[in-house]
Amino acid sequence: MSRIIAPSLLSCDFANLQNEIEMLNTSQADWLHLDIMDGVFVPNLTFGMPIVSFIRKHALKPLDVHLMIVQPERYISDFKKAGADILTVHYEACTHLHRTIQAIKSEEMKAGVSLNPHTPVSVLEDIITELDLVLIMSVNPGFGGQSFIENTFKKVKQLKELIARSGSQALIEVDGGVSDLNIDQLSKAGVDAFVAGNFIFKSSNPKQTISDLKNINR
Ligand code: DX5
Ligand code: ZN
């Protein structure tokens, strides 16, 4: 399977949001990654359902929505209505994770769980077969442009083993500090999907950068 590239709109030019989406529509991006932050689960605020709906109206690709919010179960149907295709909640934010995952799936979205850098992969042992995606945070969530945490490689390896052992179909996605320096090594370690914000949107030619990330081998 070829790499899935999911540009994170957190780093795009929000004053030109429609242009940014149209650029992504004609790029090799596979998904659009949308970071929803509540200022409680993470020390930052971003945007909510109205912006997701606007993006949905213009985007031709699946919306990969990453909820960095407490009690995400309160908003599952709202994000479905806004147009989310994949809805990822944080393990650390869900007391009743199994119920939350079932609720996402019953809304006919793909269900993902994200792990903060300090949360071990082993906590997913009893839920892995229910998941469509596991999002490993390779930075502490809250901000774009941070440095990649090298321990992520160990977690990807452990997650790959857990997926193989359990027969789960979950995809592995990595989020934070992804660049041309680590994407090939991460692919080889078993990562399927890559979120990249700063590396794409702060480059001089984002469309070319997406193509580079999709194809680079080194
Ligand atoms: C961080 C977000 C990321 C962020 C990644 O909390 O979840 O999706 O946009 O940005 P970069 O690629 O700049 O590290
Ligand atoms: Zn994210």
Classify the helix fraction into a percent range. Answer: 25-40%
Q: What portion of residues belong to β-strands?
A: 15-25%
User: Would you identify the CATH architecture?
Assistant: Alpha-Beta Barrel
Describe the strand arrangement of the main beta sheet, using strand numbers.
1-8-7-6-5-4-3-2
Number of strands: 8
Hetero compounds: D-xylitol-5-phosphate, zinc ion
Series of H and E elements:
EHEHEHEHEEHEHEHH
Q: For the record, what is the CATH homologous superfamily label? A: Aldolase class I
Global shape: globular
**How far is the first residue's CA from the last residue's CA?**
18 Å
Topology-level CATH name = TIM Barrel
Mean pLDDT: 98
Radius of gyration: 16 Å
Question: How many individual helices?
Answer: 8
CATH top level class name? Alpha Beta
Helical/strand content category: alpha/beta
Unreliable spans: none
Largest sheet: 8 strands, parallel
What's the number of domains? Answer: 1
Would you kindly provide a written description of the structure presented here, covering whatever features stand out?
The protein has one domain (4-215): Alpha-Beta Barrel (TIM Barrel), CATH 3.20.20. The chain has helices at residues 17-25, 49-58, 76-82, 97-106, 152-166, 183-189, 198-201, 206-215, and strands spanning 4-7, 32-37, 63-68, 86-90, 110-115, 133-137, 171-175, 193-196. Helix 5 links the parallel strand 6 (133-137) and strand 7 (171-175). Helix 2 (49-58) runs parallel beside helix 3 (76-82). 33% of the residues lie in helices and 19% in strands. It contains eight helices and eight strands. With 218 residues, it is α/β, with parallel strands linked by helices. The protein has an eight-stranded parallel β-sheet with strand order 1-8-7-6-5-4-3-2. The model has no long low-confidence stretch (mean pLDDT 98). The longest helix has 15 residues, at 152-166. The site of D-xylitol-5-phosphate has 21 residues, from strand 2, strand 8 and helix 7. D-xylitol-5-phosphate (DX5) binds next to strand 2, strand 8 and helix 7.
